């Protein structure tokens, strides 16, 4: 289903999500702030011509520029408005009937060197119906008048944006006696005449008057709330004004969450190169596959001419070469990236705004929890935070985060605060997992570092190229990458303290604690010194990675939000491994972690702590204040969950294979959702099947999960090729990667120069 002309859809069709949120058909509407409206309309002249209904629209429009404006103008007269700071002029001209006077005013803008308004909004009919008591003669005269005005409007439409506002229906039961002749039947007749006559003589697509018919649909839903049966309630006319702002400003301001009326972005130089590379990979893989297939067919069977018996060939099927495996991976990746581009950069599929309701979030949560419990199996090992358990943990957290994103639940503060804990728990696992590996294995080699960095960053680097987005846009990957390097640097720097060394001398434990204290001090200093943090990440080439919209503030904010939780994960791993080494905990199958008494006390404290945090998070009133406390207190619920999950032996001995499966591809799910499940860079929802929201979610989810799983497989396969264990080969690969990023930087610089 093509997205089609989203401007036409915005002006003519849509539906209400809930009571007040308007959803245009096929595209997303941006909610303009005063500063954005001023930037869009700077040095512009806007004119509204018509009756009291157009005057209502005029007031709603200028309130988007200046909310302090009061509706105190002359009711049956012209009303001027000017914002001198942005040189914006908006005028309302009182012409309640389509007649000679209106024609003369419009004609004056088409003659000579008179400055034409940039936007003209026209509409009138109810006064003609009222004054002439709904007579057929009045309708006939209306047709004659609008026929004489239409060519003038079409002439203005060549250089200006001209909108004809169709008449909204009325609520006949509420109309006063003097307005009883204004019926919906009459209004429909006038609207039909206007639509038929406007643009009938125009062959030039640029000289078309845009028919603003969406207000009719909005009025049909809301006119019952009208004060007099004729004029729309304030919320409805504000929606009309916002639609008008989107129609004109989206192509100028290009908001991410305003896909209506936005043209498809042109392909960048880097995107063109990526397209050529993937195309060549597909062609190369097909050629090699055909050659191998022909060779296999020739050697498949040979007939012994003497005995007439069929023999199996002596030659075995050749192993897949590195080149073929590489081309196979890039072939699949190229097809997947094409789907990414079509979903979120081409105007092929529709996009819609999110709309939060409690049921849209909590019902899917309950459903996946039931599924997760249904797929319960025994674990291979019963250690605390064993592999199956951490995969399960990552899996259910990722599914909850996905539901949170698609339902738009960030607007509900208690849910937002709990989701922040889930993100913190991912980082806690980063600290726990990497610390445990380095502490136990003592492997600080380049191979290990390159493997981790490749697996974390491969998909994001490809998306940065294909989707033309900065690295920091996918904020979670830079976050875990930097924290991995911090953990590595903390443990790898002299003196290298590992478990084997510490077992020989207990003083090494104090040395490691000293390192952790130094790390905590650095984190504390950087979190309260924004200037120092920004200086570190403003140096080239770090600035290229961590800047977003020209500065690193967003990166500082993201880092600061969960600044202590990785340290908490490292500290927990150290304490747990120390207790395990001294056999102070029992990890046998079915055994409680500690003695029965200690286990019961800790379990009680954990449940109370878990619930206390949830009560605090649910009572949050201010997001900023709660975010300030979050870095220090999020560890309470994380530790409480770990203890509840691991203290009882029977709970520690089972896991959900359903959640664990998703946990293995959690990183790919988190990144892929940006473009092929959500839309407009997570601001909206991808619509593959319009008109069937539930079916659409099922289809898009199925494709999304399959794609994430396939990318996980591709990443694992490529990691074996790109990051080999042999040091000399690895060095050559690293030089190639350095050359790749140098070329990427060169083309990026060329791209930026051409844009400016």
TrEMBL record:
Keywords: Acyltransferase, Glycoprotein, Golgi apparatus, Membrane, Transferase, Transmembrane, Transmembrane helix. It is found in: Golgi apparatus membrane. GO terms for biological process: carbohydrate metabolic process. It comes from the Eukaryota. It catalyses: CMP-N-acetyl-beta-neuraminate + acetyl-CoA = CMP-N-acetyl-9-O-acetyl-beta-neuraminate + CoA; CMP-N-acetyl-beta-neuraminate + acetyl-CoA = CMP-N-acetyl-7-O-acetyl-beta-neuraminate + CoA; a ganglioside GD3 (d18:1(4E)) + acetyl-CoA = a ganglioside Ac-O-7-GD3(d18:1(4E)) + CoA. The chain crosses the membrane at residues 269-291, 355-375, 396-417, 452-468, 474-494, 506-526, 561-579, 600-617, 629-647, 659-679, 685-709. Residues 253-734 form the Cas1p 10 TM acyl transferase domain. GO terms for molecular function: N-acetylneuraminate 9-O-acetyltransferase activity. Residues 22-72 form the NXPE C-terminal domain. It is an enzyme of class 2 (transferase). The keyword Acetylation does not apply. Its EC number is 2.3.1.45. It is a multi-pass membrane protein. InterPro entries: Cas1_AcylTrans_dom, NXPE4_C. GO terms for cellular component: Golgi membrane. The keyword Isomerase does not apply. Belongs to the PC-esterase family. CASD1 subfamily. This is N-acetylneuraminate (7)9-O-acetyltransferase. It comes from Sinosuthora webbiana.
């Amino acid at each position: 289903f093509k997205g089609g002309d989203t401007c036409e859809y915005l002006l003519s069709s849509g539906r209400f999500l809930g009571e007040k949120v308007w959803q245009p058909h096929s595209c997303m509407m941006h909610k303009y702030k005063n500063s954005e409206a001023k930037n869009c309309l700077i040095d512009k002249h806007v004119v509204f011509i018509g009756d009291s209904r157009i005057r209502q629209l005029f007031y709603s429009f200028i309130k988007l520029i200046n909310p302090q404006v009061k509706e105190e103008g002359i009711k049956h007269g012209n009303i001027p408005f000017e914002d001198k700071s942005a040189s914006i002029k908006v005028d309302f001209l009182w012409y309640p009937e389509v007649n000679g006077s209106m024609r003369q005013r419009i004609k004056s803008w088409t003659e000579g060197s008179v400055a034409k308004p940039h936007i003209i909004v026209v509409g009138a009919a109810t006064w003609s119906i009222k004054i002439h008591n709904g007579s057929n003669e009045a309708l006939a005269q209306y047709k004659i008048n609008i026929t004489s005005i239409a060519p003038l409007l079409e002439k203005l439409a060549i250089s200006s944006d001209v909108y004809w506002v169709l008449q909204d229906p009325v609520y006949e039961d509420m109309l006063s006696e003097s307005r009883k002749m204004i019926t919906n039947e009459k209004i429909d007749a006038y609207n039909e005449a206007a639509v038929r006559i406007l643009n009938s003589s125009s062959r030039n697509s640029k000289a078309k008057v845009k028919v603003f018919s969406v207000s009719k649909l909005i009025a049909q839903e809301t006119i019952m709330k009208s004060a007099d049966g004729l004029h729309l309630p304030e919320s409805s006319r504000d929606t009309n004004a916002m639609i008008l702002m989107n129609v004109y400003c989206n192509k100028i301001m290009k908001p991410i969450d305003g896909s209506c009326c936005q043209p498809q972005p042109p392909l960048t130089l880097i995107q063109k190169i990526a397209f050529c590379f993937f195309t060549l990979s597909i062609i190369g893989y097909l050629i090699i596959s055909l050659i191998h297939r022909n060779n296999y067919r020739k050697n498949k069977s040979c007939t012994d001419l003497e005995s007439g018996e069929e023999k199996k060939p002596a030659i075995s099927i050749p192993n897949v070469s590195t080149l073929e495996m590489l081309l196979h991976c890039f072939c699949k990746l190229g097809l997947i990236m094409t789907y990414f581009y079509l979903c979120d950069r081409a105007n092929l599929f529709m996009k819609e705004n999110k709309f939060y309701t409690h049921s849209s979030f909590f019902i899917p949560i309950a459903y996946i929890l039931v599924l997760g419990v249904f797929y319960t199996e025994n674990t291979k090992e019963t250690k605390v935070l064993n592999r199956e358990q951490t995969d399960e943990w990552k899996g259910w957290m990722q599914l909850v985060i996905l539901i949170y994103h698609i339902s738009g639940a960030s607007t509900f503060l208690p849910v937002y605060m709990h989701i922040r804990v889930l993100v913190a728990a991912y980082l806690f696992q980063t600290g726990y997992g990497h610390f445990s590996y380095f502490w136990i294995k003592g492997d600080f080699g380049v191979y290990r570092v390159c493997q981790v960095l490749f697996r974390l960053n491969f998909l994001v680097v490809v998306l940065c190229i294909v989707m033309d987005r900065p690295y920091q846009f996918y904020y979670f990957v830079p976050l875990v990458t930097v924290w991995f390097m911090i953990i590595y640097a903390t443990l790898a720097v002299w003196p290298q303290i590992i478990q084997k060394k510490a077992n020989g001398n207990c003083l090494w434990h104090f040395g490691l604690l000293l390192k952790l204290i130094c790390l905590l001090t650095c984190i504390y200093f950087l979190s309260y010194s924004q200037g120092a943090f920004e200086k570190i990440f403003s140096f080239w080439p770090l600035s290229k990675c961590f800047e977003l919209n020209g500065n690193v503030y967003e990166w500082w904010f993201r880092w600061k939000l969960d600044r202590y939780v990785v340290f908490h994960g490292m500290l927990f791993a150290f304490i747990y491994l120390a207790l395990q080494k001294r056999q102070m905990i029992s990890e046998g199958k079915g055994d409680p972690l500690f003695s029965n008494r200690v286990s019961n006390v800790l379990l009680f404290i954990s449940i109370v702590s878990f619930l206390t945090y949830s009560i605090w998070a649910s009572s949050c009133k201010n997001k900023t204040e709660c975010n300030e406390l979050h870095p220090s207190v999020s560890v309470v619920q994380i530790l409480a969950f770990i203890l509840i999950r691991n203290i009882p032996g029977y709970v520690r001995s089972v896991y959900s294979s359903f959640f664990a499966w998703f946990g293995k591809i959690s990183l790919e799910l988190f990144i892929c959702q940006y473009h092929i499940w959500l839309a407009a860079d997570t601001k909206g929802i991808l619509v593959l099947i319009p008109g069937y929201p539930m079916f659409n979610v099922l289809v898009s989810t199925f494709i999304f999960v399959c794609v994430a799983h396939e990318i996980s497989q591709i990443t694992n396969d490529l990691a074996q090729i790109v990051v080999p264990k042999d040091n000399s080969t690895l060095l050559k690969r690293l030089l190639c990667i350095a050359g790749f990023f140098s070329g990427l930087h060169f083309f990026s610089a060329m791209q930026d120069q051409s844009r400016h």
